[in-house]
From TrEMBL:
The keyword Transport applies. GO terms for cellular component: plasma membrane. It is found in: Cell membrane; Membrane. It comes from Alkalibaculum bacchi. It is a multi-pass membrane protein. Belongs to the ammonia transporter channel (TC 1.A.11.2) family. InterPro entries: Ammonium/urea_transptr, Ammonium_transpt, NH4_transpt_AmtB-like_dom. The chain crosses the membrane at residues 50-71, 83-105, 143-166, 173-193, 213-230, 242-261, 273-294, 301-319, 325-345, 357-379, 399-425. Coiled coil: none annotated. Its main location: membrane. Pfam families: Ammonium_transp. This is Ammonium transporter. Keywords: Ammonia transport, Membrane, Transmembrane, Transmembrane helix, Transport. GO terms for molecular function: ammonium channel activity.
Length: 455
C-alpha cells in the first residue's frame, strides 16, 4: 500500500563522522553536500530516499512512452500514429489534472467522512513542501510523494486506450480520459491509499495498484469496447502486430520501469523496495516462461509478442502484493496468473465475442483481480510489519474476504461510471469513426499524419 512504509529510516547521529569531518574540507562541493545533509537531518529527511524516489518517478514516467511504442507496434500501420498520440496525450492530461485537483481529491483529507473522495485542501499542490517530510512518508517531502503519484495518474488512463484502438475518435477519447479520471481513478485512489479511505478502513491490502490502476483500466476498457462495438475488419482478416521491434522496445521500457514502479511504492530506498523488486523479477520471469510453455504446447511455436505479454501479465499479477508476499510465492503467482490470463485473452474473449483490441481487460483487468486475490492468500506480516492480517495460506481468512470486497467495489465503480461516461459522450458527439475512416485508418482521418512516409 502506498501509504504504508513500515521500515525505519537511518538517522545520522549528532556525532556522525560525516557531519564532524566534512566541514573542514576545502572542497566546496563536499561542504555544500554536508550542509544539505545537516538540514535534511533536522527535518527528518533522508537524501538516499529522496534520490531513489526521484529516479523512480522519472522511470515510471518513461513507462507511458513505452506503452505508446508497445501499442504502436501491436496495431496495424494505419493506426500507429493514432494509438501513440492517444496514449502520449495522457502525459499532458494526467500531469495537469493531478496538479490541479487530482492529488487533493485522491490524497487530501477525507470529504464528508465517507472514505470516497478527498477535499480541496491540496488543490494546485497547495500546502505541499519540498523540504518537509509527510504526511504519507517520514523521509521524503510531500511534494516528492505527489510527484511520484503523478506518474501513476499518467500511465493508468493510457492503458485503457488499447481496448478501443482503431475505432474511437481522438477528441472523444480525450474527453473520456478527463471524465474517467474524476469519476473512477481519483475516487479509487482515495479509497485504497488515502488516510480515511473506504478500503483502508476495510483493511484492504493493495501494494501497487491492483484495484486503482489495473482492474479499473482493464474493466473500464472492456465496458468501453463493448459499447463502442467491434472493428469493421475484425474476423475478416488477420490482425497482427505490424512492427514487432517497436513492440519489443516499448514492452522492454515498460518492463524495466515496472521495477521502479513497485520499488518506488515503498517510498524509500529500504527493505520493502528490495523485496518488491525481487518479487517483481520473479513473477515476471515465470510469466515469460509460462506463456512460452503454453504457446509451445498449443501452437507448436513460440512468439515474441506472446512472451512479452507473459512478462507483463506476471508484472500485473504481482503488483498488488509485491511488498507483502514471500519470495517463494511470487513464482506461484506469476504461473497461475499467466495461465488464467492466457485463456482469458483467447478462449473467453472468443466465446463472448467482445473486441478488446489489445487485450487490456485480459491482461490488466483479470491480472489485477487475480493479484488482489493472491494477496489475500499469501500476505505475510513477517515480510512486512505494516500488515494487520495474514493471508489464507497462513491460517486466516478475513483478509481474503476484504480483498474480494475491494474487487467488487472496484468492478462496480469502473463498470457504472464508464457506462455513464460513454452514454453521455454518445449524446453530445460522434465517438466512433465511420466505416470509411476505419478502413483508411485513423492516422489520416484523425491526425493527418502517417507513421511511414516511404510507403
Amino acid at each position: 500500500m502506498r501509504t504504508l512504509n513500515p521500515y525505519s529510516r537511518v538517522q545520522l547521529p549528532d556525532s556522525s563522522p560525516f557531519l564532524l569531518n566534512c566541514s573542514p574540507l576545502n572542497n566546496l562541493t563536499i561542504k555544500l553536500l554536508c550542509n544539505i545533509k545537516i538540514i535534511e537531518r533536522g527535518r527528518n529527511m533522508n537524501s538516499g530516499d529522496i534520490a531513489f524516489i526521484i529516479f523512480c518517478a522519472i522511470a515510471v514516467f518513461f513507462m507511458t512512452p513505452g506503452v505508446s511504442m508497445l501499442y504502436g507496434g501491436m496495431v496495424d500501420k494505419n493506426n500507429t500514429v493514432n494509438v501513440i498520440t492517444s496514449t502520449f496525450v495522457c502525459c499532458g492530461l494526467g500531469i495537469l489534472l493531478w496538479f490541479t485537483l487530482g492529488y487533493t481529491l485522491s490524497f487530501g483529507p477525507d470529504l464528508g467522512g465517507l472514505g470516497i473522495i478527498g477535499n480541496f485542501d491540496y488543490a494546485f499542490f497547495r500546502g505541499l513542501s519540498i523540504s518537509e517530510a509527510g504526511p504519507y512518508s517520514s523521509s521524503i517531502p510531500s511534494a516528492l510523494f505527489a510527484l511520484l503519484q503523478t506518474m501513476t495518474a499518467v500511465i493508468t488512463p493510457a492503458i485503457i486506450v488499447g481496448s478501443v484502438v482503431g475505432r474511437m475518435k481522438f477528441k472523444p477519447m480525450v474527453i473520456f480520459v478527463i471524465a474517467w479520471m474524476f469519476l473512477v481513478f481519483f475516487p479509487l485512489v482515495h479509497m485504497v491509499w488515502a488516510d480515511g479511505g473506504l478500503m483502508v478502513k476495510l483493511n484492504v491490502v493493495d501494494y501497487g495498484g491492483g484495484t486503482a490502476v489495473h482492474m479499473s483500466s482493464g474493466i473500464s476498457g472492456l465496458v468501453a469496447c463493448i459499447m463502442l462495438g467491434k472493428r469493421e475488419n475484425l474476423g475478416k482478416k488477420a490482425i497482427t502486430p505490424h512492427n514487432l521491434p517497436l513492440y519489443y522496445i516499448g514492452g522492454s521500457i515498460v518492463y524495466a520501469g515496472w521495477f521502479a514502479f513497485n520499488g518506488g511504492t515503498a517510498l524509500g530506498a529500504n527493505g520493502t523496495a528490495i523485496h518488491a523488486i525481487i518479487n517483481t523479477a520473479l513473477s515476471s520471469s515465470v510469466g515469460i516462461l509460462t506463456w512460452l510453455m503454453i504457446e509451445a504446447i498449443v501452437n507448436k511455436k513460440v512468439s515474441l509478442s506472446g512472451i512479452m505479454i507473459g512478462a507483463i501479465v506476471g508484472l500485473v499479477g504481482i503488483t498488488p502484493g509485491a511488498g507483502y508476499v514471500p519470495f517463494w510465492s511470487a513464482p506461484i503467482i506469476g504461473f497461475f496468473v499467466t495461465i488464467i490470463c492466457y485463456f482469458s485473452m483467447t478462449s473467453i474473449k472468443t466465446k463472448f465475442g467482445y473486441d478488446d483490441a489489445l487485450d487490456v481487460f485480459g491482461c490488466h483487468g483479470v491480472g489485477g483481480l487475480l493479484g488482489m486475490l493472491f494477496v489475500g492468500i499469501f500476505a505475510d506480516p513477517s515480510v512486512n510489519s505494516a500488515l494487520a492480517m495474514k493471508g489464507l495460506f497462513f491460517g486466516e481468512y478475513q483478509l481474503l474476504i476484504n480483498q474480494i470486497l475491494a474487487i467488487f467495489i472496484t468492478i462496480m465503480i469502473s463498470v457504472i461510471m464508464t457506462f455513464v461516461i460513454m452514454s453521455l459522450l454518445r449524446k453530445i458527439t460522434v465517438i466512433r469513426a465511420s466505416s470509411q475512416e476505419e478502413k483508411q485508418g485513423l492516422d489520416i482521418s484523425e491526425h493527418g499524419e502517417v507513421a511511414y512516409n516511404n510507403e
